[in-house]
Amino acid sequence: MIRKVLDISRHQEYFDPQKAKKQGIDGVMIRGAYGFSEDSHFLCFALAAHSAGLAVGSYISATWHYAQISPSYEDAKRNARRQAQAYVKILKKAPINSFAALHLELESGNTCLLTAQQLTECANLFLNILKKHGYRPLLYCSIAWLFYRMDETRCKYPLWLSYYYFNSVRDVDFNTPTAKNGCLPDTDWGQKMKALGPRLALWQFGYKSGGRAYGTGSENINKNWAYQPLKRFLPFRPTRVLF
Fold first, then answer.
1. Which residues of the chain have pLDDT under 70?
2. Could you give phi then psi for residue 53, rounded to 5 degrees?
3. Is the CB of residue 143 less than 8 Å from the CB of residue 173?
4. Which residues, at least 6 apart from 239, have a Cβ–Cβ distance to it below 8 Å?
5. Residue 172: its pLDDT value, please?
6. 152 three-class SS
7. What is the structure's pLDDT at 195?
């Protein structure tokens, strides 16, 4: 059974999980951190979503691969480890019962000096730390990023991939025929995603419009299909984290 998931952060301003649930949303992936800094809305969104019975996952927008932060491979490994440790401390504050994801991209004006193999090894190092602490690791990036910037064959963990294959002001929603029931498009990238088989855990197919209908404060919202079960019970006991 596939499930409907929203990706939310402080950019949504507020979130009404009951409204989202009434619209058929099964879970949320909440940004927990940007680099070393906790997302200002993470904890309140996580507690509210958990109280409403939604699956609660999280992701970090990583910066350890940026050239100005990590000008060398050794720097990248060290900073990936440090950001993973900081992220675990943030996760421990919240009732996470779904995936914990590493989000890799390059914001405008930034560069990455790592080779595909180096970037993949650093990502695996980061996700290994999440696994060590009992979380369900997930690599979150665009389909192009996975194949152009990483060594896809060496990625150890399930994938959350973004791929927007349309061109309109109001993009596809969960009930749009071209994306209904999580059907991947018959395009070159769509075929690559299909070939990933069970490695594909989530597909982010839309990012514009519809947010307020799902209880968020912004009109734009990232919409996702989940192909793997969302929830796995983790007892919520905020504690001091030792590494």
1. 167-171, 178, 233-243
2. 90, 10
3. no
4. 92
5. 78
6. helix
7. 96
Q: How far apart are CA 150 and CA 144, in angstroms?
A: 9
Q: What is the pLDDT of residue 56?
A: 98
Q: Could you give the maximum distance between any two Cα atoms of the chain, in Å?
A: 48
List the Cα angle 137/241/63 in 5-degree steps. Answer: 50
**Partners of 202 in the β-ladder:** 160, 226
Count of residues for the chain?
A: 243
In one letter, which amino acid is 35? G
DSSP state of 24: T
Distance CA(145)–CA(150), nearest Å, equals: 7
Q: Which residue has the tokens 């970090």?
A: 60
Q: Cβ(216)–Cβ(12) under 8 Å?
A: yes
Residue 238, pLDDT score: 45
Please tell me the predicted confidence (pLDDT) of residue 200: 97
pLDDT of residue 73: 98
Tokens of 228: 């793997």
DSSP per-residue codes, 39-73: PTTHHHHHHHHHHTT-EEEEEEE--TTSTTT-SSH
- Burial classification of residue 32, based on how many CB atoms lie within 10 Å of its CB (0-12 exposed, 13-18 middle, 19 or more buried): buried
Residue 176, pLDDT score: 78
Pull the structure tokens for residue 181.
């029931």
